[in-house]
Amino acid sequence: MDQSKSNENAKDQQLEPFRVDNDGTKMTTNQGLKVSNDEDSLKAGVRGPTLMEDFHFREKMTHFDHERIPERVVHARGFAAFGEFELYESMQEYTKAKFLQNPHKKTPVFVRFSTVVGSLGSMDTARDVRGFATKFYTEEGNYDLVGNNIPVFFIQDAMKFPDLIHAVKPEPHNDMPQAASAHDTFWDFVANNQEIAHMVMWVMSDRAIPRSFRMMEGFGVHTFRLINDKGKSRFVKFHWKPVLGVHSLVWDEAQIIGGKDIDFHRRDLWEAIEIGDYPEFELGVQILEAEDEFKFDFDILDATKLWPEELVPVRKIGKMTLNRNVDNVFAETEQVAFHPGNVVPGIDFTNDPLLQGRLFSYLDTQLLRLGGPNFAELPINRPVCPIHNNQRNGFHRQTINLGKVSYHKNSLANNTPATSTAKEGGYVHYEEKVEGRVTRARSKSFDDHFSQARLFWNSMSSPEKRHIINAFSFELGKVKSQSVRQQVVNMFVHVDKEMATMIADNVAVQRPTGEQSKVTASSPALSQAHTISVPQTLKVGVLIGDGFDANEVGEVLKYLTRQGVRYNIISDRLGSVTSSSGVQLTATDMFMTTDSVLFDSLYVVGGKATNQQKFNANMVIYINEAYRHYKPIGVATTGLAFMNMSNAEAGPGIVVATGNTQFAKKYVEAIAKQRFWQRNIYPV
User: Fold this and answer.
1) Is position 681 within any domain?
2) Tens-digit pLDDT profile for residues 286-320
3) Which position among 9, 142, 148, 193 bears the catalytic label?
4) Whole-model pTM?
5) 148 is catalytic
6) 244 and 368, same structural domain?
7) Residues 119 and 257 in one domain
8) What are phi and psi of 447, to 5 degrees?
9) Rounded to the nearest 10 degrees, how much is the dihedral formed by the CA atoms of 449, 452, 455, 459?
């Protein structure tokens, strides 16, 4: 091993002794015994039975037999990265949390993105909610902001969470379908639990099929409290705003990707970090004074409601940058344990009944998944500040506690570890006055289920509305029970009558007769039509063969790189493609190994190939698919012939090089827009 690398590894091990690089080392057992043979078990004769005394075989096989831990019931399919959070401005006026005090202070973070419904092996691009969980390793302990990419939730009380998940998971009689809500039990649950209406509108929207983890918002969902050093409380909701804007796939595209690349989202995140296109998210807060708790026509503690940004603006207070991939997916991504109850002084809870239930559920789940009470000692979960308490023993205990005292109060150890006052950083819960009868009931202020669902519908652009209707039609089209389909249509007439009528016609049930909500307000912040559009980090597939114009193509590829656009060279074979002047490019993908849906845009260059007929057919397939998914297409001078073979028509998002002196610039501008909904094609 290189001596400098050896020194680096030794230094790393001093700082993080649990992070081990095996490069250049000698194999040992888990007890540190050096191993002389790792190929053959210990036998009685070369053809005889394996001996029970073979401790190395038993250790190796036992470890393998127990390598799989139970996957998460929800959020099983996840991917994660490390990073840092940097504060823009002091939040001292609102909270005493130390990591929110000093501008430009950087706090290490670990973020796990996930789907909710699917198993560990399901596809990334399923229509689903995405988890967005952030662990801040602060000097006062770990703070976990455990949220989703949708600001509201399905239900209002955690008591119903098992019912929701039982309904949306594969149906128990045949264990199908995987990672999908398009089946009878989920929609039966929807029709009979109408508090779900607002969330279902989000799930049927483009928000449920994000283009990338890097291009979706994150939300804390619940209403929390911020407490300053004077004990003053304010309500807060947390937001993550992606610097690249909020962008989505279209449904047909998402389904194809699920077959072409099941790892589409995790691969996108991994590759972006590896090449230095670090994902960035700004942390925003909506802060509400305590005296304004009841000023709205919705209950701020209701998790099925959001605070419209036009009423309570989002204030951006810092930025998170994800800049390091995990070293080991199991040890870090799979073993990380998030818990909304992991808070620091200055952040507290409210009486949101869904949040209250989560405060129990997460801890209870981790005790099972991670084998006992010592999961906080796993490297990925270990705080960066010192840990001192009287907890002892249990499965997988890693701390070796000195001394004989393991209780509080005591005299033998001078009553240590001692508790801390609030001024010393001790956590003190906000003293909220609570009174009332013990009851199983729900506040009447939670009763309105359709006003914000209607607000969401009013806020959508025409393409987004069309996508929602198509999503409902697809999902209900998979439902076998006509009764359930009818109930759902009858329910969503309260959101929008025209929408429900169109869905009814599509799924062969009677048109609904109810009345829609009278809400006329809209919230532009809810529509992706108003998001940021930049070309950076977007991917272009360059469709090319021999005989291209090296000067034209070379200048375009250089310009794409300068603008932060990534590209892959795609041809009928791997290896070199040669221009008319002898210049060569290297094709890293073949038509058969990739697909149009895996790129944000196509640059159609074309050319010659050994099997020209097959080459032409592949070019047309790629162009037609990108065109019907509303993507921008750039056409080189040599590419016009291939465009003419396809179904693509001149118009929005089609940028042609012939006679265009600013082709590269205009093409990049089109790439940034990502979709051109004006095309007169069958909507997907």
Assistant:
1) no
2) 999 999 999 999 999 999 999 999 999 999 999 99
3) 148
4) 0.94
5) yes
6) yes
7) yes
8) -75, -25
9) -120
